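Sample 1 of the test manifest.
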Amino acid sequence: MRTLWTYARTNVERTALILAAIVILLAIFGAWLAPFDPTQIDFRARLQAPSWEHLLGTDGSGRDVLSRLLHGAQITILSTLAVLSVVVVFGCAVGMFSAFVGGPIDNMLMRLADVWLGFPPLILALGFASALGASLEAAIWALIFSWWPNYARLTRMVTVDILSRKFIASADALGVPTHAKVTRYVIPNAFDVLIVQVTLDISAIMLAISGLSFIGVGAQIPMPEWGAMIADGRSYVANGWWIVLAPGLMIFLTAFSFNVIGDMLRRELDPTSRRRQP
Amino acid sequence: MTEALFAMDDVTVALRSNGRKMVTGVGLSVKPGEAFGVVGESGSGKTLLTRTVFGLQDDAELVSGRVRFDGQLLPEQGYARAARKLLGGRIGFVPQDPFSSLNPTMRVGKQITEALYLARGMPMGAQRTKARAIEVLGEVGIPEPELAFNQFPDQFSGGMRQRIVFAIALAQEPKLLIADEPTTALDAITQRRVIELMLGRCRSHGMALILISHNLELLRQSVDRIAVLYGGQLHNITHADDIGSRTVHPYTEALFECIPSKEKTLADIRAIPGEPVGAGFGTKGCAFASRCRYAEPICRETQLPLNGDQPGRFSACLLGRGADA
């Protein structure tokens, strides 16, 4: 945590770190802070502007926007993490296997990954939605399905590079077995490159989930997912601007801060990107 | 005469991809506790030969020859696997470049304890392993070994890193240590110290050493016997003291004449005419014939004689120069 803070060179980066920390805290504790039930419909209190009772107002069905936002943080962040963790573990495993095995199997796996990347995630998500029924789970599966080749390719590239370095030859001369080479030689040396990609992908996946929810193939109303909240609120923009503004702003700020952090990590950790002075 | 610890006989190495023979008919043997040098110009095949013989080169293979270590003949089938099994325990291998030979993400101490563990095949207790690792760091001359144990490789200078590489290899207490140009990246004084360190280990532990270098003078001053490779052929095995004092193979002689020293005037330093021939040039006859001042037509045609795996002197010169007189 402290190292992360020392990487920050500009106020934008410091702000991004603080925002990201707040979002993560909200995802963990937000549900307890919420003053109302996020799905409680109250038609007497519909479309109320922000007030002391409803700090961010209420939506078209009288649900408290702040409570929905706080619960939504958890849903959005958790589903992003779900996608990321599966994609990173699976993609990295495929990539490392490919690099270690080499030869025609390596070639085959990588061409498969190339072809796979050709599927647009949106179309896949629509397909999943029609097969599984539109739900947050379908959106998560669709993203997992379309995202893993990125990691397979990246990890394969990094692993091939690491395996060609001299200390791997030394490890061979010492008799280090393959499993130890993976855990103690390849993963630690690939970590810097991967962490940058993961951070950048947090915002990309979050945007994708919200986007899918917005067009209706992801989270369904009344689930307080941020993208779904915007979709729900867009018909009230004229007389309830706060309904779309709050989740929109949250998506924007979260995506923004993780993007800035990713770029910052890339600058600090990735030896292949030139060091830019701010 | 003591039994040779390591011996190769008529070893030929070829590339896997096109079958081109890069190193042909090399025979040599190393006694326990002996410091043995292998010298050759860049591209003479010395690194390829050793890496292949110890199963570390994936793109080349042994196509003929026998290799024996510690009384055991290595099998032809699955040769590379069998050779690699000897590494990390009975044979230690020190690679060329100390700057990139250490895992940058692993603490120095951890890399030594890993080597210890791999050599013994069983844990000997965290405390004892650590104590032993610190001991080895001290043995190779790292100041404050307790501190060094928890540091990362990038916190050391080149000379210190090479010592750490040695510490890792020596921790496994090998009977034979192969050092491939271990000092090329180091300055002259550090070179000397690192070589002394290895020779000291030979004397104190009876470890055999194969030192591979392009620097004849460095080898002449440090090892007992030197094998001279040129163009993928073994040309000469000679006692280090003989170089410059008695007749040796014409190539060894020519190499020695290139070395500047106090006693020589500028006119005495003679470069070898012509361009060096790389390994795998693929004609019969002596690879050095094109540049040799003694060369006769027979040199270009006749197959070079082979050395058995007998310890001692050997000269492959077709004119008999440098053969035992």
